[in-house]
Amino acid sequence: MSPLPRPNIHPPVRPPAPARIVLAFGSNLGDRAGTIRSAIDALPAHGVTVTAMSTLVESTAVKPGGKDETAPRYLNGVALAQTALPPHALLRAIQAIEAQFGRVREEHWGDRTLDIDIIAYGHLLLADPDLVLPHPRAAERDFVLGPWLEIDPDAVLPGAGPVAGLIGRATEFPGDGA
Ligand SMILES: Nc1ncnc2c1ncn2[C@@H]1O[C@H](COP(=O)(O)OP(=O)(O)OP(=O)(O)O)[C@@H](O)[C@H]1O
Ligand SMILES: Nc1nc2c(c(=O)[nH]1)N=C(CO)CN2
């Protein structure tokens, strides 16, 4: 006797849950606030949904040699977001938005219309040549930690601990905090 044909039923396919990500924005040239807002507005078209945006804070530019009072001052802000993009696709997306808003890569830590950094991608720890997660300098940057804490008081920087315990502690150069 031949077996009964099996009904062609598949378990429901659930898409993977989107990752919770933290993005940092900086600008010290042109219409700083306008450029950062435009970049935030551009994110959904790239598959990134913003769930919270901090206020923008102003700080002295940090250059490789330390604080530079003669350089244009920065506005910085942080967004919480969700995305189904894998990490490297997210990097390409933020670089496309930087390019869209006139970012030209020249001097290391040079003045720029727009900088977007991936601060954290869920709890992922990654050290690829082109992508390090969490962002390797986030723990020393009060201009990132302050706005992040504002929108998530319980924020944790993967591998480093609660943001509330990092802020104001270590800076890349003494007094470089926001
Ligand atoms: N977490 C990350 N977020 C964004 N870029 C990263 C990250 N990790 C590594 N990168 C790499 O860093 C490279 C340089 O980035 P970028 O020019 O924005 O640096 P920067 O803004 O001048 O300095 P910083 O990274 O200290 O903020 C990018 O091309 C990218 O490949
Ligand atoms: N205040 C301030 N200084 C910086 C910033 C920044 O966002 N804010 N970003 C840099 C490289 O990404 C270098 N220096």
Automatic annotation (TrEMBL):
Keywords assigned by UniProt, alphabetized: ATP-binding, Folate biosynthesis, Kinase, Nucleotide-binding, Transferase
Quickly give the catalysed reaction: 6-hydroxymethyl-7,8-dihydropterin + ATP = (7,8-dihydropterin-6-yl)methyl diphosphate + AMP + H(+)
Q: Name one GO biological process term.
A: folic acid biosynthetic process
Which SUPFAM superfamilies does this entry report, sorted A to Z?
6-hydroxymethyl-7,8-dihydropterin pyrophosphokinase, HPPK
- Which EC numbers characterise this protein's activity in its record? 2.7.6.3
In which pathway is this protein known to take part?
Answer: Cofactor biosynthesis; tetrahydrofolate biosynthesis; 2-amino-4-hydroxy-6-hydroxymethyl-7,8-dihydropteridine diphosphate from 7,8-dihydroneopterin triphosphate: step 4/4
A GO molecular-function term, please? ATP binding
Domain 7,8-dihydro-6-hydroxymethylpterin-pyrophosphokinase as annotated: residue spans: 22-153
Q: PANTHER family of this UniProt entry?
A: 2-AMINO-4-HYDROXY-6-HYDROXYMETHYLDIHYDROPTERIDINE PYROPHOSPHOKINASE (PTHR43071)
Known NCBIfam families for this protein? folK
Name-wise, this protein is 2-amino-4-hydroxy-6-hydroxymethyldihydropteridine diphosphokinase
Organism in which the protein naturally occurs: Mycetocola manganoxydans
